[in-house]
Specification:
The complex is a heterodimer of chains A (114) and B (110). Chain A is 0% helix and 57% strand. Chain A contains no helices and eleven strands. In chain A, the strands form two sheets. In chain A, strands 2, 4, 5, 6, 9, 10 and 11 form a seven-stranded mixed beta sheet that branches. A four-stranded antiparallel beta sheet of chain A has the order 1-3-8-7, with no helix packed on it. Chain A starts with a strand and ends with a strand. Chain B is mostly beta strands. Chain B has no helices and eleven strands. In chain B, strands 2, 4, 5, 9, 10 and 11 form a six-stranded mixed beta sheet that branches. In chain B, β4 and β5 form a beta hairpin. Chain B starts with a strand and ends with a strand. In chain B, 34% of the residues are buried. Classes of the chains: A mainly beta (114), B mainly beta (110). The interface between A and B is medium-sized, with 25 and 23 residues.
C-alpha cells in the first residue's frame, strides 16, 4: 500500500513551458485534491475532484488544469509556466467514514519556474 | 483578514516543555478541526481530529476547540526533539474542502 505518490519530486521549468505533475493513490479514495504551499501562505487549494469524471476549482485555479479519468490518478497540468507558479505542490486524497474525514498527502513536488 | 490565522513562529522550547499552538478562524460554518504535522521537505500528516467543540487527547497531544471564540489549540506535553516540525491547523464545514492555516514552526531543543 503506497498511499499517495507524486512524480516528479523536483522540476525546473522555463517561463512558458508546460508540464504535468502526476499523482496516484491506491486507497480507493473518491476525493482527491491539489494544493500549493508557499511561505507564510499555508496550503491553498488549486483543484479538487469528488470522483472519476468530476473536477472543480479551488481557491487558486488560474494557470492549472486537471482531469480525473480513473479513481487512482489525478494529474495537474501547468499550461504555460510562470515564475509565480514556483511553489511546492501537494496532492492529497481523502475519505469520510462515520463523520470523520481523513486526508492523506503525497510527498510533494518542488517546482521552480525561471 | 485571512479565513484561518496562525502564529507562524518560529517557536523554540526546551525538551520537556509544554507547547501551546493556536489558530483563530472567522467562518462560523466550520465544524471539523484538524492538526497536521509537517516535517521538513515532507507532506503533512494528520495528527489530531476534532468535531465541533470540546477536547480530545491522544498520548502527549491534546486538541481543544472553542467554537464560541472561534479558537482552537493543540497542546504538546513533555515535548521531544522529534516534535520539531511545522504544525498546520485545518478546518472544514459540511462540504468537502479543507482550509489550512499558514503553519507554526516548532523547534524543541535537547
Amino acid at each position: 500500500n503506497a498511499g499517495v505518490t507524486q512524480t516528479p519530486k523536483f522540476q525546473v521549468l522555463k517561463t512558458g513551458q508546460s508540464m504535468t505533475l502526476q499523482c496516484a493513490q491506491d486507497m480507493n479514495h473518491e476525493y482527491m485534491s491539489w494544493y500549493r504551499q508557499d511561505p507564510g501562505m499555508g496550503l491553498r487549494l488549486i483543484h479538487y475532484s469528488v470522483g472519476a469524471g468530476i473536477t472543480d476549482q479551488g481557491e487558486v485555479p488560474n494557470g492549472y488544469n486537471v482531469s480525473r479519468s480513473t479513481t487512482e490518478d489525478f494529474p495537474l497540468r501547468l499550461l504555460s509556466a510562470a515564475p509565480s507558479q514556483t511553489s511546492v505542490y501537494f496532492c492529497a486524497s481523502s475519505y469520510s467514514r462515520q463523520g470523520v474525514y481523513e486526508q492523506y498527502f503525497g510527498p510533494g513536488t518542488r517546482l521552480t519556474v525561471t | 483578514q485571512k479565513e484561518v490565522e496562525q502564529d507562524p513562529g518560529p517557536l523554540s522550547v526546551p525538551e520537556g516543555a509544554i507547547v501551546s499552538l493556536n489558530c483563530t478562524y472567522s467562518n462560523s460554518a466550520f465544524q471539523y478541526f484538524m492538526w497536521y504535522r509537517q516535517y521538513s521537505r515532507k507532506g503533512p500528516e494528520l495528527l489530531m481530529y476534532t468535531y465541533s467543540s470540546g477536547n480530545k487527547e491522544d498520548g502527549r497531544f491534546t486538541a481543544q476547540v472553542d467554537k464560541s471564540s472561534k479558537y482552537i489549540s493543540l497542546f504538546i506535553r513533555d515535548s521531544q526533539p522529534s516534535d520539531s516540525a511545522t504544525y498546520l491547523c485545518a478546518m472544514k464545514d459540511y462540504g468537502q474542502n479543507f482550509v489550512f492555516g499558514p503553519g507554526t514552526r516548532l523547534s524543541v531543543l535537547p
